Amino acid sequence: MADTVLEVSHLTVSIPMGKEVFPAISDVSFSVQSGKITGLVGESGCGKSMTARAIMGLLKPNCKITEGSILFDGKEISHASAKERCDLSGNQMSMIFQEPMTSLNPLMKVGRQVEEALRIHTKISAAEAEKKTVEIFREIGVPDPEKRLKAYPHELSGGLRQRVMIAMAMICRPKLLIADEPTTALDVIVEAQILSLMKQLCESGTGILLISHNPGVIAQVCDDVSIMYAGTIVEQADVYELFDHPMHPYTQGLFNAVHSLSEDRGELDVIPGTVPDITHRPSGCGFCTRCTQVKQQCESSFPVMHEPIDSHRVRCHLFDGKESHEHAH
Amino acid sequence: MKQIVQRLLQAVLVLFGVALLLFIMVRVIPGNPVAMMMGDHADPAAIERISHELGLDRPIHEQFFIYLRNVLRLDFGTSITLGRPVADLMTAAFPNTLKLAVCAAVFAWVTGIFCGIISAAYSNSFIDHLFMGISLLGLSMPVFLIAMVLQYVFAYHLHILPISGTDSWKSFILPAIALGWNCAGSVARLMRSSLLEVMEEDYIDTAYAKGRSHAGVLIFHALRNAFLPVVTMMAVQFSALISGAVITETVFSINGIGRLAAAAINGRDIPLLQGTVLFSTLAAVLGNLLADWLYLLLDPRITEAI
């Protein structure tokens, strides 16, 4: 049984818009095990990045965690002080961002940026730090590491820059790595390389939270998957179960939209409509305006999480009263 | 290296252009400068004799080459109103202008950068609004007004600083503040906006994610990036300061390049005017070269771009 590195439960983050306060994400619960990759999938604007930022303590000052808890390695960190954050970030938990182009300081040599975390968190000599940086560059597949240390970010390709970001995040051997759309800005071949690198990293014991809008990416590397829609998690299961038996109408629509070529290429399956704006989310299920199987109560009452099959949770009124433990009786 | 040579050549070209323009303008101004110099009742024969002595009766291109040769030897001729070689006058005036410029720049940059950083770090707080209000006042108040208010308060009323002159280092305090006030205002505003912009960049999040504290992020990541535009502004400001502050030097009776320029214009003193204008051009060109060079030094991305 793997250790739980991160346990997020009932997390709600509120954001003020004008005079009112809206929940940007509500009742988000999931966990990340060490040595495993947990995927978080959803369309842009559904709250994936906000979730990641809340975990890392990088929320903008106006966003507030109003409910729920974030347990990191058994310790509550949802309202950690700046000092506690500094000790954790880059050391025990770290993050890589979507845009490798803009996520590196343009005026600093990449070697210095990678060893920075080491220098902050450990008392290590400059020579030793450089040695470790070369080591991690080699491990992560940066060709010619000694030379690359002295390069500026603009001298590297997008894929190399993302590798540098990964090196930076991994250099203190964190227990948790949050990867927010790490391959979205990269081309397909580099994407595959980066994904296999992530897999290799998690085998060394790090728990990874992989955020993506692309179910294909998730299917390739994740162990557990949470599907997010309009600020809440609508479905949750291990990757095989989820892709074999998607239950939530949104998940089904999402997977249908990702067409396989063997099928008929005629019409593209799209989910009609768009994600409701944060200020206009329905009081009931967030998906009710686009759902093909909408029922009366969907518009008025917010669905609770059901567990129709063990370890497969879905937040939908279609499964009201279909709990797995009830079947067991 | 290639870019540096290119920039130097450009600078030389600009200087040559200004020298040529000055030469042409002087010839285009109606009236014979010798006649003007000698007054209304001068003997025409004398005018002719002096014109010959000054070489003004030679062909125009010949005059230009003589003029150019003299400029290269830093020989700008003799001032008509003050009766002394322009080069000597300027050499005597330059130390005062330099002292004033350095004092004003130090005052402006230290206060400007400090206020800008504090304003950005505590943006939209009381202190931010206070600093930005003062800097707006600095930008919108004319120099002579600031100068006179300072003189009235600190020299006339409180008697703690000399009202004018260049007798001691204390004499430079008020003029430096008056002259630097404007620059301080623009530096503070640019520093603030630049820092606020940089703090929104993705690499700032990266730095926080690495475990840097607020102060660490500011010092190691934000400031250097935010400085880039400010440094350019500072280099240009310094070249403006050093080319002579006409108003400040006049109000505080400082014998500097700016006052010479004012005297040259008032007295239609063409050699003196040529000297001061060429000097200002040189300062501006060097200031821009300095800005380019500093940028090259601070921003590794520039090497290919220039």
Detailed description of the structure:
The complex is a heterodimer of chains A (329) and B (306). In chain A, helix 3 (110-121) runs parallel beside helix 6. With 329 residues, chain A is α/β, with parallel strands linked by helices. Chain A starts with a strand and ends with a helix. Chain A has helices at residues 48-56, 82-88, 110-121, 126-140, 145-148, 158-170, 188-203, 215-221, 239-244, 249-257, 296-300, 324-328; strands spanning 4-17, 20-33, 37-41, 64-72, 75-76, 93-96, 176-180, 207-212, 224-229, 232-238, 306-309, 312-314. In chain A, the strands form two sheets. An eight-stranded mixed beta sheet of chain A has the order 6-7-8-3-9-10-12-11, with helices on both faces. Chain A has a four-stranded antiparallel beta sheet with strand order 2-1-4-5, with helices on one face. The mean pLDDT of chain A is 86. Chain A is built from twelve helices and twelve strands. Chain A folds into two domains: 4-92 and 172-328, P-loop containing nucleotide triphosphate hydrolases (Rossmann fold); 107-166, no CATH class. Chain B folds into two domains: 2-72, no CATH class; 86-305, Orthogonal Bundle (MetI-like fold), CATH 1.10.3720. The model of chain B has no long low-confidence stretch (mean pLDDT 85). Chain B starts with a helix and ends with a helix. Helix content of chain B is 77%, strand content 0%. In chain B, helix 10 runs antiparallel to helix 13 (270-298). Chain B has 306 residues and is an all-alpha fold. Classes of the chains: A alpha/beta (329), B mainly alpha (306). The A-B interface holds A 56-58, 82-83, 85-91, 94-95, 97, 99, 102-108, 116-117, 120-121, 152, 154, 165, 168-169 and B 201-203, 205-214, 216, 220-221, 224-225, 298-301.
Write the layout of secondary structure elements.
The complex is a heterodimer of chains A (329) and B (306).
Chain A: E1 4-17, E2 20-33, E3 37-41, H1 48-56, E4 64-72, E5 75-76, H2 82-88, E6 93-96, H3 110-121, H4 126-140, H5 145-148, H6 158-170, E7 176-180, H7 188-203, E8 207-212, H8 215-221, E9 224-229, E10 232-238, H9 239-244, H10 249-257, H11 296-300, E11 306-309, E12 312-314, H12 324-328
Parallel strand pairs in A: 3-8, 3-9, 6-7, 7-8
Antiparallel strand pairs in A: 1-2, 1-4, 4-5, 9-10, 10-12, 11-12
Chain B: H1 2-28, H2 33-38, H3 44-54, H4 60-72, H5 86-121, H6 126-140, H7 143-157, H8 173-199, H9 202-209, H10 214-242, H11 246-251, H12 257-266, H13 270-298, H14 302-305
